[in-house]
Write a structure and sequence with these properties.
The complex is a heterodimer of chains A (650) and B (82).
Chain A: H1 7-17, H2 23-43, E1 47-54, E2 57-64, H3 66-85, H4 92-110, H5 114-133, H6 140-166, H7 181-193, H8 202-206, H9 214-233, H10 240-257, H11 261-282, H12 285-316, H13 332-345, H14 352-366, H15 370-396, H16 410-428, H17 431-434, H18 448-467, H19 469-472, E3 477-479, H20 484-487, H21 489-498, H22 500-608, H23 613-633, H24 638-641, H25 643-649
Antiparallel strand pairs in A: 1-2
Helix pairs in contact in A: 1-2, 1-4, 2-3, 3-4, 3-9, 3-12, 3-16, 4-5, 4-9, 5-6, 5-9, 6-7, 7-9, 9-11, 9-12, 10-11, 10-15, 11-12, 11-14, 11-15, 12-13, 12-14, 12-16, 13-15, 13-16, 14-15, 14-16, 15-18, 21-22
Chain B: H1 15-33, H2 49-73, E1 74-76
Classes of the chains: A mainly alpha (650), B mainly alpha (82).
């Protein structure tokens, strides 16, 4: 019985297999990973799984409870939608980055301790940046900026964890204290990923520069993982309420000014995540449920909106409101599906945003925070104004820009349709979402006054929009945001390096030339005279001494050493003469004597070799007779002399 | 869309829009009669409050954003390039 299969496994394995696959198999693996992960989560049993004990700590890979499961479900659904939408992409690298990114987000969600969380947190940053870089060479700088911000966030998180653990906090990841340096640094790390101002500029900077399908993944995972960890670690942290409300309005204000269609939607991510952050700050069960459910709905409708606008960029090659218009005739399916997302994010009744966003606002009302509820409603009006009215109006209607385009490939439409279905499904049947929410809070969105109030608010916003349409005409500008500090201020630092510091360096060089190089010339002149007057005579004298010494040595060599060598040579020569005589007359003489004696002996024995058998038989008999006589004569001495014999007889 | 026949600034004066206005006013009136289950603040009992709020929100957002945009934030597109 398998209790829990970690969903990250499916994504990482699929990413590893992908380069070896082609055609249909490749598509099956791509779509199979999120599907299997989703069904694995449906089957999983709540509890703590995958515990690794090491260094006296427990690292938990699979903490399964209602909170992590609901994020797990929506992450796998979002990954499936994103992969369907990007199915036509040929480049394996893009799919691998997306799979690893989605997988590591799931890893972060199911992490039960701070270190495991940190590791998946970093993998997320380093895999998602490739979705930016795959856009092309012009996105290199954006990717680096994105990575720098997330590295800073990662360092803050790691530092916070280290301090928290060192102070005896333990590595378990549950609700953290609201005070102290460690938890504060952890919170900053979380807030950077949640794109809370002033740490938000990476999001509208990088997301619109990512690949066409890449932004669908980007919009889903990083900020929502941050919402998850905030719900888990910092529920009821008061500072999050003003921060969240600020976010909600900040995104809306910038969306008014934005001309890039995907950047406008990116600013609305900040706005929407603001609702979730504020809800986490409120910390009641209803508010936390609101944060979770709004994250769930947001992933789906923001994915849909991003897919719609990415399709427009993909099919027209244009991304600015000022250059678009009149596409409703040529891209009708994209327009219709986009509008479903637009109604969902604007919280129209029967769409998903209505059943989730209202939960956050109701939570604010429930704890009597009128300012929070009104400001969030204000942001809500702004959301409809831009994503539901302004963006579709200037992209699909307004002036006809005369663009030749058509609806995107079937897989992209399928991805959008899937997301659109989910947006309507949750709006119509909120119980489907509510029953998987982690906290116990009863909520009914469809009351008469609520529905009528929401509709009135939205319709009068629309009225205002059409009355002030002229004011809203897009302008070909960009808006400075807090990324100014690292995009303009860093060049400012470079100016500091180039201008004042370079001038200073020039003065130092001038001083160096006058004070050190110029006296150096005199020093070299002085040394020239020194050479002429002292060194050269000395060298000459040395050379003369040397010459005398060499000639002396030469004389010694010729007269003494050579003489001695010759004397020895002569002595040796004399010895050679004597040894010649000795060799010639004595050694050779002796050898000749032996040779001669052999010769004589051979002539004697030759006579014995007659070749007659009886002669040889005679010799053998005589020999045997002599041996027998010897034996008889020396019989008494023999046993004592021949040891072998003695032993042989025992 | 009506904008194809009429200039943008005249959109809200067209006949179709007049019908829409009628619907909006009717809804405001209806809102006055809708039962209030969760009236927490005094404005929850004002009929058509959310309509007024929505309209004012829209106007404030547009003017405030465009105001600070033109004053400080909006730059030419090659702002970061040099």
């Amino acid at each position: 019985m398998i209790e829990f299969i970690h969903p990250t496994l499916f994504f990482f394995i699929a990413a590893a297999l992908l380069p070896f696959l082609k055609g249909t198999t490749r598509k099956i693996v791509l779509l199979g990973a999120p599907l299997l992960a989703f069904f694995g989560l449906l089957m999983s049993i709540e509890g703590t799984h995958g515990v690794l004990s090491s260094m006296g700590q427990e690292f938990i890979l699979g903490r399964v409870d209602k909170l992590s499961l609901v994020f797990g479900y929506v992450f796998t659904i979002a990954a499936l939608i994103g992969l369907v939408y990007s199915l036509h992409v040929e480049r394996d690298g893009e799919h691998m980055a997306a799979l690893l990114y989605a997988g590591s987000s799931l890893g972060a969600v199911f992490a039960g301790d701070l270190f495991t969380l940190f590791i998946f947190w970093e993998i997320m940053a380093f895999t998602s940046v490739f979705l930016v870089w795959f856009r092309g060479s012009e996105s290199a700088a954006v990717g680096i900026r994105y990575l720098m911000v997330h590295t800073f966030g990662g360092v803050a998180l790691l530092g916070g964890i280290a301090i928290y653990v060192a102070n005896g906090g333990g590595i378990a990841f549950d609700a953290l204290p609201h005070t102290g340096l460690g938890p504060t640094l952890i919170l900053i790390g979380f807030l950077i990923n949640a794109a809370v101002p002033p740490f938000h500029a990476w999001l509208p900077d990088a997301y619109p520069e990512s690949t066409i399908p890449g932004i669908v993944f980007m919009a889903a995972f990083t900020t929502k993982t941050a919402v998850y960890v905030l719900v888990r670690g910092f529920p009821g942290t008061e500072i999050l309420v003003p921060l969240g409300v600020t976010m909600a309005l900040y995104g809306v204000v910038y969306a008014v000014l934005e001309n890039d269609i995907r950047r406008l939607l990116a600013y609305h991510i900040i706005s929407q995540v603001g609702y979730m952050v504020a809800a986490v700050g409120m910390g009641t069960d209803l508010a936390l449920n609101g944060a979770v459910s709004h994250a769930y709905a947001h992933i789906l409708y923001k994915g849909l909106l991003m897919m719609g606008m990415s399709s427009v960029v993909f099919m027209t090659g244009r991304k600015k409101l000022t250059e678009l218009g009149g596409l409703y005739k040529t891209m009708p399916i994209t327009f219709s599906l986009y509008m479903i997302g637009g109604f969902a994010i604007s919280a129209f009744p029967l769409f998903s945003g209505f059943v989730t966003k209202s939960m956050v606002i109701s939570a604010a009302i429930e704890i009597h925070r009128p300012a929070v509820s009104l400001l969030l409603t204000l942001a809500s009006a702004g959301t409809f104004l831009h994503t539901g009215l302004k963006l579709p109006y200037y992209v699909f209607f307004a002036k006809d820009a005369g663009i030749v385009a058509k609806d995107p490939p079937p897989n992209m439409i399928a991805g959008m349709a899937l997301a659109a279905f989910m947006c309507v499904f949750i709006g119509v049947w909120p119980e489907f979402l509510y029953k998987s929410l982690p906290f116990a809070a009863d909520y009914h969105p469809y009351t008469g006054d609520h529905v009528v109030g929401a509709l009135l608010m939205l319709l009068f916003t629309a009225l205002g929009f059409f009355m002030l349409l002229k004011k809203l005409d897009p302008e070909p500008t960009i808006s400075v945001d807090t990324d100014w500090f690292y995009r303009k201020a860093v060049p400012g630092f470079m100016w500091l390096v180039n201008k004042p510091i370079a001038a200073y360096e020039e003065r130092v060089t001038g001083f160096y030339k006058k004070g050190i190089i110029a006296p150096g010339v005199w020093v070299s002149k002085f040394s020239e005279y020194l050479d002429l007057l002292i060194i050269d005579p000395l060298v000459n004298a040395t050379a003369a001494v040397h010459l005398f010494w060499v000639s002396y040595c030469r004389k010694f060599d010729v007269r003494v050493i050579d003489g001695m060598v010759n004397a020895v040579g002569r002595g040796v020569f004399g010895g050679g003469w004597f040894s010649n005589i000795f060799e010639k007359y004595i050694v050779y003489g002796l050898i000749n004597v032996v040779g001669y004696m052999n010769h004589v002996g051979a002539r004697i024995f030759k006579r014995l070799q007659t070749g007659s058998v009886h002669n040889y038989a005679m010799i053998i008999i005589v020999g045997a007779f002599i041996l027998a006589n010897i034996y008889i004569l020396f019989r008494d001495q023999l046993p004592s002399n021949l040891i072998v014999w003695k032993w042989g007889l025992g | 869309m009506t904008s194809k026949q009429t200039p943008k600034s005249q959109v809200y004066k067209s006949k179709k829009m007049k019908i829409l206005y009628g619907i909006l006013v009717l809804m405001m009136v209806l809102d006055g009669f809708a039962p209030r289950h969760h009236a927490h603040f005094f404005w929850d009992n004002i009929g058509g409050f959310s309509a007024i709020f929505g309209f004012i929100a829209c106007v404030i957002l547009i003017f405030f954003s465009k105001g600070i945009g033109h004053a400080f934030l909006m730059k030419r597109e090659d702002f970061y390039d040099d």
